[in-house]
Structure formats: structure tokens, C-alpha cells
Amino acid sequence: MRARGTPAAILIAAAALACGAAEAKILPGKGAAKNVRLVGVHDLAARTAYQPVIHKQGARWIAYIGHHGGRMVNPLTGKEEENGTSILDVTDVRKPRLLFHIPGEKGLVVPGRETGGAQMARVCDGATLPKGDKSKTYLLRTYGESSNEVWDVTIPEKPVRIAVIGGFKSTHKNFWECDTGIAYLPGSGDPSVWRASRVTHIYDLSDPAKPVKIREFALPEQKADAQGYNPGQIHGPISTGPQGNRVFFGYGTNARGVGQIVDRDKLLKGAPEPTVENLRAPEIGRIMLPAFMGAHTTFPLYDVAVPNLAHDTRGQTRNFVVVVNENNVTVCAEHRQMAVFVDVTDEAHPLGVSTYDVKETDDDFCKHGGRFGAHASHENMTPVFHKKLMFFSWFNAGMRVVDVRDPYNPREIGYYIPPVTKNTDKRCADEVKNTDCKIAIQTNNMEVDGRGYIYIADRANTGLSIVELTGAARALAAYPK
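-> C-alpha cells emitted (481 positions)
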């Protein structure tokens, strides 16, 4: 008998998980869970999903989901639309409700890539932004590969575009400081200035309707006249804002990776001309990865009281950056990407101290289809989880829960692999010839909210899974009373 108020989709998914969990190995498509429980699902109209962002607006919790390119029917209008940004009410996580879909850019048909769409989303309140309308809420999103846009989403059911930031392409994983309005926007640069295909455009969006460009930033080795080794293009930054005075830049995804630690104050107030000297001036430290590894996400874990050092007279507290690489190729046909924990207590001399990886042989993930390996970590530093637990997306191995209280010894304590649905798309070993294809979960990005729910977006059209921790994993979190 179905419990009152429990959506049928969740019961079906839970039954599939229970079936999969009983097996010695995780069966492809069946899903599995450990110390994690599914509480809500939404099919997102079968759109391929990238970045979820969850924001509290008044008494409601609103989820903004960025999508890769493609086109599907909007169930609210019955009309086909280019994948863009789905806006959901997730106040009741057991019954997520689509409020609106903002179409994105029409993409090109490129094997193995979802071009177009509107992959990234960031949200700030006007009450927090220095020059924002105190009564409004704003969405910053990428528009395909051609621009960034700012939308007034005060009424999520009626979004209104108020600004377009154009002039560069190849947009990707942006970041917006809500307390200052500073935005870091990856995008293409002038080829006469840069040999990198993507650099960081820094804007003042303290007044979201009036963007002001501050400067462009990249590694000195990415200048057009540079010689020798060329690090990977910028993938995305994470800023601690003026309080922490650091910006962490990740370059490359699965190759030529660099993690860069930058003095935020020097970056924003320094001379903007892209000379080698001006580009070097804000850099404090650099994490050089092997040529076959990338830096998709550079997540700071500063001021960690390491348990094993509690009785030392010096150095009990350490600083770390968690560098997450991204596997870009299906069926394990490239170097495995993973999460690397780097001690940056001495920021000028970083030291890799540990790694986290999912053991492929336990469940034959390379045979499940699609990509297997790391993609990203969550980025919200909510006190519920910060410096206690981290969540990593691992494509066909789902979302992984890792105890990071001791970054020298990260320990997996849970996972959630959604079951496939009728919407889950195939992934092919040869994307050009469309051969050796399998239906596979492709957990893409995740995010957490201030209540402690985790939102899992799927690249292969499976939709959005909302989960919560149970058991030993939940015991480590600081859930609100």
C-alpha cells in the first residue's frame, strides 16, 4: 500500500534501488544507494541537465536547472523549446513542480557534445547585491556559447531578461559573488591577445541591469605570444569573496590541468592590461597537475582542524583545495579522472596529499556504458555539510558521499545511483559512428541547499533526483534543528 503523499515515481525508483542493492554487484540501470534516501524526482521534460542551483525566495525554495543544448516539449505550453533553464518550486521536495522554462540557444549538432542550451545558473538577491533592487531576485545564466544573461526572477513564474553580456563565446561555468556583485565569466578572448580558447571575463554586476567590465584574466602561458606548454582553458572559478580574499581557478578538464590560487584584492584592483607581469601579480600559488589530468573544479577547504593533529603544538589547522577532474570520454577510454586533495597551508608550495576515486572493479562500471569517472563536486558551502562531507558526481557511478573531516584520508560513506527511466538516453562508445551504445545514468552536477537536501542532475535526460542522507552519513552532517 502506498504511503499517503508519496509520489508514485519515488516508490517505483525506491523499488528499483532495493532490487539493485540486493545484488552482489550494482546492475546497470537498476540504481543503488548507501546511506542516502530518495525523497523527490522530476523528469525535467527529459532535458539533458547540467547545473542545479537552489535558492530560498521568501517562504519558497526555488531550483534553477541549467541545461545542455537540445530541444524538448515544454509541458506547461505544449510547445517545443530549445533547452535552457528550468525553474522548479522545491519547497516540498517530495513534489517538485515546474514553474517556468526559459529557452536557451539553439545548438549545433556535434557528436559527443551538447552545444547550445544554457548550462550554468547562479542566483543572487537584490537585498544582498550592493546596487540591486532590494525587492528583487536575479538569475545569471549562460546563453549557449554566445553570451551571459541576467534575468529578473523575483516572480519565478514570470522571468524577465534585463541584461545581456556579450562579445565573447565559449561560455561555461561562471561564478557570482552575491555580497559584492563581482562575476567571473569564462568565455573566448581576442585571439590576438590569447592563445587559450577561453579566458575569464570579470564583471561588476552589483547593479545587475548595468554590467561593467573590470578585466580579462588567464595564465601568462596562455598569452598569444607565449611559447611552450599551453595549460588547458579555464573551466570555472570559485571565489571566497572579500572575507577570504581568494579566488580559485580551475584550468583544463581531463588534460593539462592547473589549479590557481589568486589574491582577490590584487586581481580586482590590479592593472587590467593583460601583460605577463599583470597576470602574474595576483597569483599566490599554483597546483600543476599531470598532462593527462584536468582541474574541472577547485573547491577550497580552509581552516580544517585535522583530527589526527589535535595534540600537536603547531599546525593543527590546515588549508586544502580539492581539485576534481572530469572524464570526457565514454567506456573508460582515457586516463581516469578523480578528486585530488592538495594541502595549501603554505599556498606558494602546494602538496598533493590524498586522492578519492571509485573502485571500478567492484561493480564493473566500465561495462555499464557512458562515462565513468569524476566530474565535479558540489560548490555550496552550507554549514550543514561544509568541512564535514563532500559530494562528487561520478557519471555512471552516480553521486558519491565522502567524509572529508580528515582530508589526508578522505573516506567514502555513501552513494546514490539513480535508476534509468524511459527518458534515459543512450551513450555510445563511438559518438561519430553511433556504435556500441548503452542506456546509462550520467550523473552530471549536484548541489545542496541550506536544508541539507542534495540535488542530482543527469546528463542523459533522466531528470532531477532529490535525496537526503541517512545512517552514518547523516550523523556527520549538521542538519538544522
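The first strand starts at residue 32 and ends at 34.
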